[in-house]
Amino acid sequence: GGDHTITYPILQAVAEKHGPVGLVHVDAHTDTGDRALGEKIYHGTPFRRCVDEGLLDCSRVVQIGIRGSSYAPDPYRYCREQGFRVVLAEDCWFKSLVPLMAEVRQQLGAKPVYISFDIDGLDPAYAPGTGTPEIAGLTPSQALEIIRGCKGLNIVGCDLVEVAPMYDVSGNTALLGANLLFEMLCVLPRVKTM
């Protein structure tokens, strides 16, 4: 629910209980800007604020599907300097993400992990109902591979953000979002699936 700003206070609460957590972040954007429109808290800045406060175990942060417009010649520099693994959308085109998720599970290990999924990580052909669509994104089947690939991780929370139904007269974005949330519930620890 809501825009990506909501992840910041959620991770404050999660870190209060679990300490710094790993993160599987699916998005078109890194959301690590320092300021936007003069504000430090904005839907493009939550993960910068989380780093500032030590809420993330930065060596266990993976961002998948990143692409689109930027304001700097090296838009992913900050993330890489923090130790994040940045997986660009173009590195996901035309392939299964099952092998990537095997690597991600190895990287994240047994410590607590949070999943944050921005619907704009998907191509707007599938999910047009979002405020900052970017072309050439992930497919729904890749989204399922990412989420299902999190099974076995010590997931302590998750969110799905940036669904804006008024931008999608078909209702497909909301349907996709609801199904992805269901999939996230299915990969939570101790959930039995068939």
Automatic annotation (TrEMBL):
InterPro entries membership: Ureohydrolase, Ureohydrolase_dom_sf, Ureohydrolase_Mn_BS
Keyword match Hydrolase: yes
Checking SUPFAM superfamilies in the record gives: Arginase/deacetylase (SSF52768)
Entry's family note: Belongs to the arginase family. Agmatinase subfamily.
What is an example of a Pfam family matching this protein? Arginase
Query: GO molecular function: any one?
Result: agmatinase activity
Domain of life assignment? Eukaryota
Q: Some GO term, biological process aspect, for this entry: which one?
A: putrescine biosynthetic process from arginine, via agmatine
| UniProt keyword Nucleotidyltransferase present | no
| Species this chain originates from | Asarcornis scutulata
Question: What name is this protein filed under?
Answer: SPEB protein
Q: Which gene encodes it?
A: Agmat
Q: Which UniProt keywords apply?
A: Hydrolase, Metal-binding
